[in-house]
Amino acid sequence: MNYFGSNIKLLRTRKNRTQNDLAAALEIKRTTVNAIENSISQPTVSQLQAFSKYFGIAIDTLINTDLNQLSESQFTDLQNGFDVFIRGTNLRVIATTVDKNNIDNIEFVSEKAKAGYVTRFADPEYIGNLPVFQLPFLSHEKKYRAFTISGDSMLPIPSGSVIFGEFVQNFYDIKNNDACILITRDEGIVFKIVENKIALSFNLRLISLNPEFSPFEVPVSEIKEVWKFVCYMNTEIPEPETDIRKVLQSVNELKKDIKEKLSR
Predict the structure, then answer these.
(1) 157-207: pLDDT as tens digits
(2) Range of 221's domain?
(3) Where are the beta strands (DSSP E) in 58-161?
(4) Which residues 6+ apart lie within 8 Å of 171 measured at CB?
(5) Taking CA atoms, which of 4, 45, 153, 219 is between 20 and 30 Å from 210?
(6) Half-sphere exposure for 113 (CA within 13 Å, toward CB)
(7) Does 262 reside within a domain?
């Protein structure tokens, strides 16, 4: 069942906002807000994203969870940026495909498909059109997906590698120093080492293997999916670290230290 319209009305009234207020904030017509709240019409993809960003709640939650049934403590979590959709296995939904033996496929999200995946990761039709395969050494009891990574932030794992991840049902299960593929609202698909700070600040701290990239924190309300790193594949043989590369790395580290000292 789709709870989007009733959820938007509930969230708006709890924020003491009128339909005009919400329409102005989202730059849409008041009649559009009214039609959506009363389930007369369905929101567009861009409107789904706008409502989700405005209220700080995942699209999945707005559609699939009846917020009228939440306790005040759960609403407190929502208002603090902690989406109830990450609380347990009964609240998380994943679109998947299976083979002829009813075994979950491993869907492959290529570099070209990454942009679309960020907005359509929960769309069964989109997921159904992704390339699929099986790996015999991975458990049939778990759900896996493969992603192409780009950039140098996770060197020595090279850009262009295919990363295999195991679906994380509950974000609390993420352990410090787990490597994860994260599907985020603003950063897109990122592959990082994770420090779990949900219990303290409802954030995940993301750390690159390459020390030239600074760590940063992402609120859990901005995270759509997490896939725990299992293994990776690459068709290129990594280059040995040359003396000049070591020198350049030392120079970059020295520049960074000097910059930090001058800024104090």
Answers:
(1) 999 999 999 999 888 889 999 999 999 888 899 999 999 998 788 789 999
(2) 106-233
(3) 106-109, 132-133, 144-148
(4) 86, 196, 198, 204, 220, 223, 226
(5) 219
(6) 16
(7) no
pTM of the model: 0.60
Give the containing element (helix H, strand E) for 125.
Answer: helix 124-128
How remote is the C-alpha of 261 from its chain's centroid? Answer: 35
HSE-up of 236 (CA within 13 Å, CB side)?
10
Say how far residue 68 (Cα) sits from the centre of its chain. Answer: 25
In a domain, 208, yes or no: yes
Within 10 A of 13 (CB to CB), how many other CB atoms are there? 11
Cα gap 107→144, rounded to integer Å: 8
Within 13 Å of residue 17, how many CA atoms lie on the same side as its CB?
20
**160, 146 contact by CB (below 8 A):** no
Do 135 and 81 share a structural domain? no
Sheet holding 203-207, edge to edge: 132-133, 106-109, 144-148, 162-167, 223-233, 178-184, 188-197, 203-207, 216-219
Closest listed residue to residue 198, CA positions, set 80, 39, 75, 63: 80
Segment 123-156, tens digit of pLDDT = 888 999 999 999 989 998 899 999 999 999 998 8
CA distance 140 to 229: 16
Residue 199 vs residues 5, 35, 62, 92, 187: alpha-carbon distances, Å = 31, 38, 23, 19, 22
Two structure tokens written together for 26: 């989202």
In this structure, the strands spanning 162-167 and 223-233 are antiparallel
73 and 158 in a common domain: no
Instruction: Match 């979590």 to its residue by tokens.
Output: 77
* Residue 117 DSSP SS3: helix
Structure tokens belonging to residue 244: 């000049």
